[in-house]
């Protein structure tokens, strides 16, 4: 069976990556692409790499244009998805790649985003530990799915196994992320953009202000943290087009051996197709995951500091956004989870 697909926000980075992956998906057929200011243009003029979709023209982002499809992917700025998706049919599978449906707590939304709160949907990170199970089980048959924030899912996947196994403490977590500018979207506003990025590293949202913090805390609570985690989270834009390299550390529960610590991550991801714990002493590069739906995790125990150190690499546009959305859609529709997605990065 072929499922008809519409993509809202098709002119942006996330929308373009969704279309690139959907074009190679054997069970999805993209029939409608929408945009705001680019409506009326040929898709190929806005996304020139998508040669196989050159026949499509961008139309206005309205419920009328999105209705009538089996699957709708929404890649809009925060605050824009919720007001649109409320008007889509209940039996349509809708995957929101924006932030509007990620947070369970309205107070978190008010504190970090503001504006109308649209309610939480099933969270689109299948591998995330939820108590003794995984989020994958909650996606089966779902018709409303919130794809994750790329930074949030990276840190959650990096630390959740230790929380769930009780081998790390949920307080005093620290995460520093090197992030490509595509993670901030095409609307990224920096003065003299090229000069700011090329040859420079630029921290942003410093001091507990980044909007993905409550999403990380929420995920770690689901994993089994008895109290809300506390995390110092600092993203840094670096001169690479795409990718995230996250260094996340946590205090080890006293008396826990390095072998027991590592075993927690091995157990969590042993059977996962897209999340891989690397052998001891090995650590990933962003170059290893570009274009792939994989998250690669390296782990070390800093005995002197009493902390576990995880290094996690993902492609923010694939595993961080579009790939996670398609992987979740596959599960919701009863398709093979890996369909249309690849483990292999693009070799440098």
UniProtKB/TrEMBL annotation:
One of its GO terms (molecular function) is N-acetyl-gamma-glutamyl-phosphate reductase activity. Its EC number is 1.2.1.38. One of its GO terms (cellular component) is cytoplasm. Its main location: cytoplasm. It is an enzyme of class 1 (oxidoreductase). It catalyses: N-acetyl-L-glutamate 5-semialdehyde + phosphate + NADP(+) = N-acetyl-L-glutamyl 5-phosphate + NADPH + H(+). Keywords: Amino-acid biosynthesis, Arginine biosynthesis, Cytoplasm, NADP, Oxidoreductase. Residues 4-136 form the Semialdehyde dehydrogenase NAD-binding domain. GO terms for biological process: L-arginine biosynthetic process. InterPro entries: AGPR (IPR050085), AGPR_dimerisation_dom (IPR058924), AGPR_type-1 (IPR000706), NAD(P)-bd_dom_sf (IPR036291), Semialdehyde_DH_NAD-bd (IPR000534). Pfam families: Semialdhyde_dh, Semialdhyde_dhC_1. CDD domains: AGPR_1_actinobacAGPR_like, AGPR_1_C. The keyword Cytoplasm applies. PANTHER family: N-ACETYL-GAMMA-GLUTAMYL-PHOSPHATE REDUCTASE, CHLOROPLASTIC-RELATED (PTHR32338:SF10), N-ACETYL-GAMMA-GLUTAMYL-PHOSPHATE REDUCTASE, CHLOROPLASTIC-RELATED-RELATED (PTHR32338). Catalyzes the NADPH-dependent reduction of N-acetyl-5-glutamyl phosphate to yield N-acetyl-L-glutamate 5-semialdehyde. Belongs to the NAGSA dehydrogenase family. Type 1 subfamily. This is N-acetyl-gamma-glutamyl-phosphate reductase. It comes from Cryobacterium levicorallinum. The lineage of its organism: Bacteria, Bacillati, Actinomycetota, Actinomycetes, Micrococcales. The gene is argC.
